[in-house]
Specification:
Length: 260
């Protein structure tokens, strides 16, 4: 493994730090069965996959505690990892329930957890429902949270550890949008997918809230391809699912999948 060559695969400083730490984990596999990262964002996970695909004699898997998790850890091993055989991952599932009915948001739960001095990378997905929130965390901090988290904001809560293997992920609401656009520029597709005016979309670009494939995009003229994911912080995300070709009026017919 040529560490310097692999580091050249990325240019941004934060990505180089991520890759360096990832390769340190690879080296750990020579002395133990498995090595694990902290939770990675979807963008960080894509960087990790690109690098690990170039490392010989190393196997890896992304795990977030449930199928379809957005934030994941990378499990790395020098031995083949069977996809269909359960193995221990250092992830715990905590259920946080307000004592009285209260509409707490994702930001409320995350803010209170960070307020305990916990780093963001130790926390995976936070799935908020009407009566509680399920939170995936690195197992080393689970007990600390159980003993120290008693409030979300000013709302008293109860916290319990659940069996992660019995967890059933919530059904994701999604719908298909068939439409036409003048071009496959990100601002054009985002305007159609989110049902917003081009002016409003530009406001999100100026506020640096638009990501393509989980990487910040500042240019509204960036061109998209099938499978690209556009997310706007606070608005959710869409996928450019299909590009069907040009219409008689020389517009482009597309299918967008929107997650709500």
């Amino acid at each position: 493994m040529d560490k310097n060559e692999l580091l050249k695969m990325v240019s941004k400083l934060e990505d180089r730090v991520l890759v360096s730490r990832l390769l340190d984990k690879v080296e750990q596999c020579h002395y133990s069965s498995f090595a694990y990262t902290d939770f990675l964002s979807p963008y960080e996970a894509s960087v990790a996959k690109k690098v690990l695909d170039r490392v010989k004699d190393v196997f890896y898997k992304l795990a977030g505690g449930y199928e379809g998790a957005e934030r994941t850890i990378v499990v790395i091993s020098s031995d083949f990892i069977e996809e269909d055989i359960p193995y221990n991952t250092p992830i715990s599932l905590l259920r946080i329930t307000p004592v009285i009915e209260n509409k707490l948001s994702h930001r409320d739960y995350l803010g209170s957890l960070l307020g305990l001095g916990i780093k963001r990378e130790k926390i995976g997905d936070i799935l908020v429902s009407e009566k509680f929130a399920d939170v995936f965390v690195v197992d080393k901090i689970a007990e600390y949270i159980l003993y120290n988290l008693d409030k979300i904001g000013n709302v008293k809560v109860q916290c319990q550890e659940c069996d992660i293997y019995q967890f059933t992920p919530p059904h994701k609401k999604e719908r298909s949008i068939s439409t036409t656009v003048a071009s496959l520029r990100v601002d054009s597709v985002a305007s159609s997918g989110f049902g917003l005016s081009r002016t409003k979309i530009m406001d999100y670009f100026k506020a640096q809230r638009v990501n393509v494939n989980w990487e910040l995009v500042q240019s509204p003229s960036k061109m998209l391809a099938e499978g690209d994911v556009i997310s706007i912080r606070g608005m959710g995300r869409i996928v450019l699912e299909k590009v069907l070709g040009n219409t008689r009026k020389d517009r482009i017919s597309i299918v967008i999948k929107r997650f709500e």
